[in-house]
Specification:
The chain has 142 residues and is of the alpha+beta class. It has one domain. It contains 6 helices and 5 strands. Strand 2, helix 1 and strand 3 form a beta-alpha-beta unit. Helix 4 packs antiparallel against helix 5.
Length: 142
């Protein structure tokens, strides 16, 4: 299933490691230097330790959970809510921002009428340019 929009779809958490129970789980591309730097900023922020961070570039298939394939997880930011719902793109950023006290103001702005579609458009534009910053490697298809 290609991940091309910010719609949500319910997918239960995997039954294997229960490390994400009750936590927002963020799937990011650790092979992208720009993505890695942004995620590190969120991880260091107040509240960052309360989220579960999964580097989709280097994790095992089980860590991705139900309904999330590695190519989709590497293509754009995904978040799995505590109820198992997957959110992607700009909506996923808004989920992360809402979980971090110093970033909540941005989540509120993102949720104003008409703002999230604009953020999604900007994010999609960024994704087209992102390969310029991502080192070429054959490890993304593990």
């Amino acid at each position: 299933m290609p991940a091309t929009d910010s719609h949500t779809a319910p997918h239960p958490l995997p039954s294997a490691p229960d490390v994400t129970a009750g936590k927002l789980c963020v799937y990011y591309d650790g092979g992208c230097p720009l993505c890695r730097a942004e995620i590190a900023t969120y991880q260091r922020a107040a509240g960052g330790s309360g989220l579960h961070w999964v580097d989709a570039h280097g994790c095992g298939v089980v860590e991705l959970g139900a309904g999330l394939e590695r190519p989709a997880a590497l293509a754009r930011l995904h978040v799995r809510r505590a109820d198992g719902t997957l959110v992607q793109g700009a909506a996923a950023f808004a989920e992360v921002w809402s979980a971090l006290p110093s970033w909540r103001w941005l989540a509120r702005v993102a949720r104003l009428p008409g703002v999230l579609p604009l953020l999604e458009l900007a994010y999609t534009g960024f994704l087209r340019l992102r390969p310029l910053w991502r080192p070429a490697s054959g490890t993304a298809n593990r």
